[in-house]
TrEMBL record:
Pfam families: HTH_8. Residues 20-51 form the DNA binding HTH domain. SUPFAM superfamilies: Homeodomain-like (SSF46689). This is DNA binding HTH domain-containing protein. It comes from the Bacteria. It comes from Draconibacterium sediminis. GO terms for molecular function: sequence-specific DNA binding. InterPro entries: Homeodomain-like_sf, HTH_Fis. Coiled coil: none annotated.
Length: 178
């Protein structure tokens, strides 16, 4: 099979039986169930024809398996939320450290380090800004966010350069007065 041809994932028989459970939960509405599961209506009709009787015969086992899968998914979701909270905390700590260094000794920050930090921080912050002020349409949002991203990064670089100049001027005026 060539690289450009679409590869289809085969559903296991157990997966098809879980599809039948979803179909039953939707009152045997094949179009709705197919849409929810991301498969075509004709595929759902074919599965219904082939697997409905088997599902009815093994309904309790399919229900138990579906419940177990749901429980595992909830645990995974909780784990992902914990990881997300830890990452946010780490990110905020790094922002605070950068802010302290900018206030105390802006000359100690190397441009290379700053660019590396901004390449990680700016997309994250821009995403948060876009979500907080999501007044743009989805099509316009990516262009708007990218334009704002460039401005955001440039403003940070300008502030750092200004802080370095101010500190250098302060040091040179201190040296000339002594």
């Amino acid at each position: 099979m060539s690289e450009d041809k679409r590869k289809y994932e085969k559903s296991s028989q157990q997966q098809k039986l879980r599809y039948m459970r979803a179909l039953e939960a939707n009152g045997l509405n094949q179009a709705l169930t197919a849409r929810e599961l991301g498969i075509s209506r004709s595929t759902m009709a074919r599965y219904y024809k082939k697997y409905w009787k088997e599902y009815k015969d093994n309904k309790a086992a399919v229900f138990a398996e579906s419940t177990d899968i749901g429980r595992k998914k909830l645990l995974l979701d909780a784990d992902l939320e914990n990881i997300s909270v830890k990452l946010r905390g780490t990110f905020l700590k790094s922002l605070n450290l950068l802010e302290q260094r900018l206030k105390n000794d802006p000359a100690s920050i190397k441009t290379k380090d700053l660019i590396q930090f901004l390449s990680v921080a700016a997309p994250y912050l821009m995403e948060k800004m876009a979500v907080a002020g999501a007044k743009d349409t989805k099509d316009d949002m990516s262009n708007s966010v990218m334009a704002t991203h460039s401005t955001f990064v440039q403003n940070i670089v300008n502030q750092i350069n200004n802080a370095k100049k101010d500190k250098d001027q302060h040091n040179s005026s201190f040296n000339s007065s002594t």
